[in-house]
Design brief:
The chain is built from 20 helices and 30 strands. By secondary structure, it is an alpha+beta fold. The two termini are 46 Å apart. This is Xanthine dehydrogenase molybdopterin binding subunit.
Length: 807
């Protein structure tokens, strides 16, 4: 088990351990390179750009050189959340020093609505203003300073109107961006009516700012034939290609979009990177000059959407042992002013309202409320975390109702034989892993001994209270929009034997490109150094899906594997008939940079370079495309039933906290994580994803608080007012391990499982542990109400409320 201890006075120990982990020595050598040191898929390897990252050589959008006459863009944003733009005076802006062009909605040559799935996202405001930060106009100037100064000269005439900011009230008035959806199974009404006991509760779950290190940025260069070349920090290049082409009124093939890497995305660059590319493309084509657009942090935070805040409530039927028999769950997503991806996001919240537990006969209803804020969008977990929160709150509430430990109640409600079908009709495969994970973690974390120690400590400590919680994760893997579950790849082998792979996925620091290179190396029996990856480009692999839904490695890895395996088989067929004396086609293989045929004394070995050269001289194609489409998945929206996920990934985490119940301040003392990734493609990268996902999830539930004023203007618009976790917030002891010996039961990439999103929800255990600590104020007889983020202020108020009720 990898243990990172933060304050033990030996910070270099963790660094040495990680180095040993990668190099193949030390206690984690079982995860490292294979016995021949080839660092193929399944072995740990450094991120393909790691050295570039730490030396500053990695190229991001701001590092791309442009011609000296390149233009810089600044945006005019609405200062109000709701109203009517009656007049926009821009003459002073146009006459400002350095200004080359100013554009509004009326200057758009093609489509003016750039909604990614459903309409509702105008590129500029025409008349109706829907949120503070909405784009009114854009200025292009010879310098960024000149553009920003010019923007301030605009005169805005706005008839301001009251802003709708309450999603619950909006849903009650049927003010929604998409229709309400329902999933139900069995006779849940009768189950509730005839229940031994019923329990109900509600919870507000706050949103989250993506806070990527590299903000929204792009460079657009005009090309011949009225086209454009778009460099963008973007998770969905094909969608941006489509929208730029439609805005310009030109064919898709006239637009090329390139993404080498992003400085973070987390979902915030899936749909909401496109508007800025569209604006820059209009200016580039109008002026014939390369155009840069980069949002400052405060504008980025005001102009772009967040993780959806949710208001959830439940009513459950339970028996005397706390086992759920059925119930009714409602989730209300605060979608902002337009649909964006909210239909699918609220759907996924509904899909995950059960988390790891059988709901029995149940109905889950999802509302998509419209408010006057930026259109909320994809964020790691894509609604799943918000859906899970309500059932995890219910688990704690049930435990206190029946007088049992919350872990006991959770285990009693796990999916199991006879109770293994979700409320949307999918059977939970590998459900036994829930029990395996939790039983293993329960033992390795010494849960029950610590539970007794904490009870004893709390009994003797009137102010500082400790809390402990173990929470599981069951997360479905696939896009819930079926058509997105496809990917392509393009593979080139050059005559020196080196390889270039391109695929439709994008790299945002998560190590996708590294894993794809490892897949190709494994399929062709080569060292990882022989394979290089190029930027994601729409003119190499067309019509790609976004890098989202934890599907990047699953989809693109399978496409790359398809390309490599087809090329390998072509080389085998050629070699079998070409080399003198003939080669045994049966059992032919590529290993350690060699084509190997036959066994024993009849074995023949041909170096990879010789094989490639010979194939080229004999006019054998050394290029191949690959494609993959996820099988089996389907969902009938009319019935709310189907199999939306190819498989489930599982995990579990234990958190221990110490809470000052007078001030609300708290520390996360220890965290233990055990996570299921099947057969890991790269354990070093996967462990990093688990660690990072956990901390980001913990931040969402504890410190990251979004605040709007009464008029709907975001006031937490920078690092001074919006607090992401820092090194000082890490658990004092942080134990992370991957579950071994349990490959994916489905035919995934080498029986691996996705790792991007599932670890995020492991952070729920910290919030649950805070509630556990507060519950000790009533000797665990009641559950405190604790909305998220559970800031020290909210914790303090919850403790005060508990003490007041106890009087």
């Amino acid at each position: 088990m990898r243990t990172l201890t933060k304050l033990d006075g030996d910070s270099s120990r963790a660094r040495r351990e990680l180095h040993d982990h990668i190099q193949g020595s030390g206690p984690l050598a079982r995860h490292t390179v294979d016995s021949h040191g080839q660092r193929q898929a399944g072995a740990s390897s450094f991120h393909e750009s790691a050295e570039k990252h730490v030396t500053g050589k990695a190229t991001y959008i701001d590092d791309i050189k442009t011609p000296q006459d390149a233009l810089h863009v600044a945006l005019g944003l609405s200062p109000v959340a709701h109203g009517t733009l009656t007049k926009l005076e821009l003459d002073a802006v146009r006459q400002a020093p350095g200004v080359v062009d100013v554009i509004t909605l009326h200057d758009v040559p093609g489509h003016t609505d750039i909604g990614p799935v459903f309409p509702g996202d105008p590129i500029f405001v025409d008349q109706e203003i829907s949120y503070a930060g909405q784009c009114l106009f854009a200025v292009a100037a010879t310098s960024l300073q000149a553009a920003r100064q010019a923007v301030k000269l605009a005169t805005l005439h706005i008839d301001e109107q009251p802003a709708s900011l309450d999603p619950v009230a909006a849903a009650g008035r049927q003010e929604v961006v998409r229709p309400t959806h329902v999933q139900e199974r069995g006779d849940w009404q009768t189950t509730l009516q005839q229940a031994e006991q019923t329990i109900e509760g509600e919870l507000f779950i706050g949103g989250q700012e993506h806070f990527y290190l590299e903000g929204q940025a792009c460079i657009v260069v005009p090309t011949e034939d009225e086209g454009v070349m778009v460099h963008t920090s973007n998770q969905h290049p094909s969608e941006t290609q489509k929208l730029v082409a439609e805005v310009l009124g030109i064919p898709f093939h006239a637009v090329t979009v390139e993404v080498r890497r992003m400085g973070g995305g987390f979902g915030g660059k899936e749909t909401q990177a496109s508007p800025w590319a569209c604006i820059a493309a209009i200016i580039a084509r109008r002026t014939g000059k390369a155009t840069r657009l980069r949002l400052p942090r405060s504008e980025d935070m005001r102009a772009t959407g967040k993780r959806h805040p949710f208001h959830n409530r439940y009513q459950l039927a339970i028996d005397a042992q706390g086992v759920i028999k059925g119930g009714d769950i409602t989730v209300i997503g605060d979608c902002g002013y337009s649909p964006d991806l909210s239909d699918a996001i609220v759907d996924r919240a509904m899909f995950h309202a059960d988390n790891a537990y059988s709901l029995g006969d149940a109905r889950v209803t999802g509302h998509r409320a419209k408010t006057h804020t930026a259109s909320n969008t994809a964020f790691r977990g894509f609604g799943g975390p918000q859906g899970m929160m309500i059932i995890e709150a219910a688990m704690d509430d049930i435990a206190h109702r029946v007088g049992e430990d919350p872990l006991t109640i959770r285990k009693r409600n796990f999916y199991r034989e006879g109770r293994d079908t979700t409320h949307y009709g999918q059977q939970v495969d590998q459900k036994q892993l829930l029990h395996t994970l939790v039983d293993t973690l329960e033992t390795s974390s010494d849960y029950w001994a610590r539970r007794q120690h904490i009870r004893d400590y709390n009994a003797a400590s009137p102010v500082i209270k400790k809390g402990l919680a173990l929470t599981p994760v069951k997360f479905g893997i696939s896009f819930t929009a079926q058509h997105l579950n496809q990917a392509g790849a393009l593979l080139h082998v050059y005559t020196d034997g080196s390889i270039m792979i391109n695929h439709g996925g994008t790299e945002m620091g998560q190590g996708l490109h590294t894993k794809i290179c490892q897949v190709v190396a494994r399929e062709l029996g080569l060292d990882l150094d022989s394979v290089r990856i190029s930027a994601t480009r729409t003119d190499k692999v067309p019509n790609t899906s976004p890098t989202a839904a934890s599907s990047g490695a699953d989809l693109n890895g399978m496409a790359a594997r398809d390309a490599a395996s087809k090329l390998r088989e072509r080389l085998f067929e050629f070699a079998a008939g070409h080399f003198e004396g003939g080669l045994d086609r049966e059992g032919m293989r590529l290993e350690h940079g060699m084509l190997i045929a036959g066994i024993g004394e009849s074995e023949r070995r041909i170096p990879w370079g010789e094989l490639v050269q010979t194939a080229y001289l004999n006019r054998v194609s050394l290029s191949e495309k690959g494609f993959y489409a996820t099988p089996l998945i389907h969902y009938n929206r009319a019935t709310g039933q189907g199999r939306p996920f190819y498989y489930y990934a599982f995990g579990a985490a234990v958190a221990e906290v110490s809470v000052d119940t007078l001030s609300g301040e708290y520390l996360v003392d220890r965290v233990d994580v055990l996570h299921d990734v099947g057969n890991s493609l790269n354990p070093a990268i996967d462990i990093g994803q688990v660690e990072g996902g956990f901390i980001q999830g913990m931040g969402w539930l504890t410190s990251e608080e979004l605040k709007w004023n009464a008029k709907g203007v975001l006031v937490s618009d920078g690092p001074a007012t919006y607090k992401i976790p820092t090194y000082g917030d890490l658990p004092h002891v942080f134990n992370v391990d991957l579950l071994e010996g349990h490959p994916n039961s489905m035919a995934s990439l080498y029986r691996s499982k996705a790792v991007g999103e599932p670890p995020f929800m492991l952070g729920i255990c910290v919030w649950s542990a805070l509630r556990d600590a507060l519950s000790s104020l009533t000797d665990y007889r009641t559950s405190p109400h604790l909305d998220t983020p559970a800031t020290p202020e909210r914790v303090m108020l919850a403790a005060h409320e508990i003490r007041k009720k106890a009087l």
